[in-house]
Amino acid sequence: MDPDLEAFVRVPPPHLELQHTAELEDACTCMALSPDAQLLAAGTFKPSIGIFDLTLKLLRTLSGHAGGTNALAFADGARLVSAGEDGHLAVWQSSSGSCLARLECEGTNVDKTRDG
Q1: For residues 74 and 49, is the Cβ–Cβ distance under 8 A?
Q2: Which residue in 30, 74, 84, 109 is deepest, having the highest Cβ count within 10 Å?
Q3: Alpha-carbon distance 1 to 67, whole Å?
Q4: What is the pLDDT of residues 34-70, one digit of tens each?
Q5: Separation CA 76–CA 95 (nearest Å)
Q6: Please, which residues have CB within 8 angstroms of residue 40's CB and are 6 or more apart in sequence?
Q7: Cα(34)–Cα(17) distance, integer angstroms
Q8: Once rounded to an integer, what is the mean pLDDT over residues 100-111?
Q9: Residue 24 has pLDDT above 70, yes or no
Q10: What strands lie across the sheet with 69-74, from one edge to the other?
């Protein structure tokens, strides 16, 4: 990593103050904020997704991918979509954590659109 960029990432600007921290099982690979800005979803290299409130209190853990999570997006306030390393997309009920649907995707990079 570029040393200047690394310094910026590790040392936040003085006008920003850390409010909360969360401990994850592994390094965070992706995050998504719900449309109402009340939930934060975080994926890691492990096969689980954490759903947090805005104080970063873990509300629930979603399990369903065979590997890590590549991408997350809230479809609306009630559903979360995840793209996993296992080549599947999963649709989750964000309030209960239940998996509503799983879709198998062909090819690699299921989290990428045609234009990147």
Answers
A1: no
A2: 84
A3: 26
A4: 988 889 899 888 888 989 888 888 899 888 788 888 8
A5: 12
A6: 31, 32, 33, 34, 51, 52, 53, 54, 56
A7: 22
A8: 70
A9: no
A10: 69-74, 79-84, 88-93, 99-104
Q: Which amino acid is at 26?
A: D
18 in helix, strand or coil? coil
The Cα-based distances of 45 to 9, 59, 100, 114 in angstroms read: 20, 19, 22, 24
Q: What tens digit of pLDDT does each residue of 59-98 get?
A: 998 887 888 888 999 987 789 999 988 888 899 998 888 9
3-class secondary-structure state, position 88? strand
The model scores a pTM over 0.85: no
Q: How far apart are CA 50 and CA 9, in angstroms?
A: 23
Beta strands in 1-116 (DSSP E): 28-33, 40-44, 48-52, 58-63, 69-74, 79-84, 88-93, 99-104
Q: Characterize the bridge pairing of strands 79-84 and 69-74.
A: antiparallel
Can you tell me the distance from the alpha carbon of 84 to that of 12, in angstroms, rounded to the nearest whole number? 30
